[in-house]
Specification:
With 116 residues, this protein is α/β, with parallel strands linked by helices. The protein is 25% helix and 7% strand. The chain has a three-stranded parallel sheet, with no helix packed on it. Strand 2, helix 2 and strand 3 form a beta-alpha-beta unit.
Length: 116
């Protein structure tokens, strides 16, 4: 019955086995039906900046489709090359494949996104 409550989640690909959507629903998706939920941290780049999954239905498409389908706001992790999943390869700011992917997602340009 409290007011001003929101939930923050970190739905990394390595935190649960596929199919991910079932786990996301069980862990926090149900809450989004009632309360604000914000995915404040997630990624799928490896520690060396390489893209983990190259197929057309990879984690990135699935998580964006799920979050936006549930009305869950999101941001990605992390603009620092020294952290696992960093979106730049070095302090020369060369983007990882993950940053390129999420840049398109932030613009609403993924095939899984629909404009309303």
């Amino acid at each position: 019955n409290a007011t001003g409550i929101a939930y923050s989640v970190h739905p990394y690909a390595n935190k649960s086995p596929e199919p991910w959507a079932a786990t996301w629903e069980e862990n926090y998706g149900f809450a989004a039906n009632t309360w604000p939920v914000f995915a404040t941290e997630f990624s799928f780049d490896s520690r060396n900046g390489s893209f983990i999954d190259h197929n057309g239905n990879h984690y990135g498409n699935q998580i964006i489709s799920y979050l936006e389908g549930k009305g869950i706001s999101w941001c990605i992790w992390v603009y620092d090359p020294d952290w696992g999943g960093g979106k730049i390869k070095s302090w020369k700011y060369e983007p990882t494949e993950g940053l390129k992917f999420f840049s398109e997602a932030m613009k609403g340009k993924l095939k899984v996104q629909t404009k309303k």
